[in-house]
Amino acid sequence: HAKETPEASWWSTVDTPACETRSGSDVAMRIGIDFGGTKIEAIALASDGTELRRKRISTPRQDYDGCVRSVTELVAELEADLGQRGSVGIGIPGCISPATGLIKNANATWLIGRDLRGDLERSLARPLRVENDANCLAVSEATDGAAASVRLVFAVIIGTGAGGGIAIEREAWVGPNSVAGEWAHNPLPWPGSGEIPGPACYCGKRGCLETYISGPGLCRDHAEDTGKQLTDKAIIAAAEAGETEALAAYKRYVDRLARGLATTINMLDPEVIVIGGGLSNIARLYEDLPGLVEGYVFSDTFVTPIRRAKHGDSSGVRGAAWLWNG
């Protein structure tokens, strides 16, 4: 198996490393915005990928105009601090409809149906590049991260929600319907009797993979089994300590994640799978997933590396900046 080295603690953090140099670009400074359901993060990168400045604020939830204003202010603050103007790329928890130009499929539901790119281009007085946040993760890790040496990368986000993105030659692959990589809104593969029809999903369907492999999905599953309301970190800490109910919840979780990854490998067969988001910090995932995935993949071999995002929870915002690769 292409296993990563297991670590002492189940839940660990990733230090942001020094960036590799990228050459051949005429963009002096790139600004990336990671628009999340709970926080908005902005980063400024030099042309070689060196981090120049970073800011993070809470997302004005359910306040679309406040979100537009917040992004505009973050960009203005970075440019004022650094004394130069930059390109701006934005990662969002959804995508832009190719039919309408409006946001669709966003778990930050107050963005749905809004002209976010147009409103921000007018507010910032410049063209923007806007991509799904999982695509930004894929671009980041394919550019100077855990998959920098390969052509085809599948990136997974598992946190407040769940998503996936594809990068080919360091560029996001979106597809004609803008849904490439949206593995988490397929049904949970090979469901057992207790997994049908599955939990209701915000997309209007039931049993989506996201309802099982997101942080809230782990918490819901544990609560249904135990009656206890715990955070995902508390569940993992209890599992690490050997608590029976928490360990059982973790085992169900990682098996469901493995099933989802196996179907993606069967369709796409990427060279590297990179995992980001809050739950990517469960270090034991990288020990347990390869053997479980192998049992579901339609192949006599399974050699695909499954790696944690090199840039940790900063990878998405870096990828948003790297949308201006060319």
Can you describe what's shown?
- The chain has 326 residues and is α/β, with parallel strands linked by helices.
- It has helices at 64-82, 116-124, 133-144, 210-213, 215-226, 232-240, 244-268, 285-294, 315-321, and strands at 29-35, 39-46, 51-58, 87-92, 95-96, 103-104, 129-132, 152-158, 162-168, 171-172, 272-276, 306-308.
- A five-stranded mixed beta sheet has the order 3-2-1-4-7.
- A hairpin with a 3-residue loop joins β1 (29-35) and β2 (39-46).
- Mean pLDDT is 90; it is low at 1-8 and 13-25.
Supply database-style keywords:
five-stranded mixed β-sheet; disordered N terminus; 326 residues; 33% helix
Secondary structure tally, helices: 9
First and last CA, distance: 35 Å
Gyration radius (Cα, Å) is 19 Å
Number of strands: 12
What would you call the shape?
A: globular
Mean pLDDT: 90
- Percent helix range: 25-40%
**H and E order:** EEEHEEEHEHEEEHHHHEHEH
Biggest pleated-sheet summary:
5 strands, mixed
Q: What is the SS-derived class?
A: alpha/beta
Share of β-strand residues: 15-25%
Name the poorly predicted regions.
1-8, 13-25
**What is the spatial order of strands in the main beta sheet?**
3-2-1-4-7
Q: How would you summarize what this structure contains?
A:
The protein has 326 residues and is of the alpha/beta class.
Strand and helix map with partners:
Blueprint: E1 29-35, E2 39-46, E3 51-58, H1 64-82, E4 87-92, E5 95-96, E6 103-104, H2 116-124, E7 129-132, H3 133-144, E8 152-158, E9 162-168, E10 171-172, H4 210-213, H5 215-226, H6 232-240, H7 244-268, E11 272-276, H8 285-294, E12 306-308, H9 315-321
Parallel strand pairs: 1-4, 4-7, 8-11, 11-12
Antiparallel strand pairs: 1-2, 2-3, 5-6, 8-9, 9-10
Helix pairs in contact: 1-2, 3-9, 5-7, 6-7, 7-8
